[in-house]
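Subject: sequence -> structure tokens, single chain

Hey, anyone have a minute? Need the predicted structure for the following. Not urgent.
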Amino acid sequence: MMARTNWPQPAAVLELLKPVTWFPPMWAFGCGVVSAGPMPAGKWASVALGVVLAGPLVCATSQAVNDWFDRHVDAINEPHRPIPSGRLPGLWGLHVAVAWTALSLLVAATLGSLVFTAAAIGLLLAWAYSAPPLRLKQNGWWGNAACGLCYEGLAWLTGTMVANGGAVPPASVVWLALLYSAGAHGIMTLNDFKSIEGDRRMGIGSLPARLGPVLAGRVACLFMAVPQAVVVVLLWSWGTPLHAAAVAAGLAAQLVLMKRLLASPRERAPWYNATGVSLFVAGMLVSAFAVRPDILGGS
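Reply:
Had a minute. Here:
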């Protein structure tokens, strides 16, 4: 029988699942719900379950998978994490990742076939991002694209599908989900600044490790700014000028903050995550309201 000391503490499992990372997909899911328009009261239970699917299940799975396959890198960059520190001994990190994958698929199956498909794609991306043979994170271009699509685009579309009874989202919602996914590519680049040394030593080609902090900072800003500019143009062309103006104002403020970020991108990436990224996600919600059928007319 396995010794009791080989069992992980619940606090270590929760730390592996990283609740602090659940906000982005839960927020994107919420934007998807908002963009679906007025919702019957009977849908709220499904929406609540969908929020759990987006954050504590699918996103948490991606964190567990990443930490398991990054345990050697984390031993350099962040040795206090549950796996390299020994607080999750043996294969427990992998076991949690597999169990959470299965639980995510089980919950997604109760929300309809399209939601199950979206969740399955998200989970495949989560494993492909971290696990060999693909290990997309070894190339920051592909890895960040996978994360952006999983955390923002798929979560947004899933929220819309859950709220509207499993129907395919309209084109306007799909465009917003894809554009904000592209913007999230830049956010993921900012998150990689903290692990440059370990990434270089372990051959992980994150954009800060591959391009250097200065150029990676510029690329991150480009990925965040251009999709939002396209959103502004689309919202204006769809006949929602007030929403377009609000997103444009948020983007203008971000451009000011980006100038300060680029003066010292490595040191100021956490600061920008707390300021500029907050404006980015606020724009997501404004855009979601803009494309509600009762505002946009279902176009």
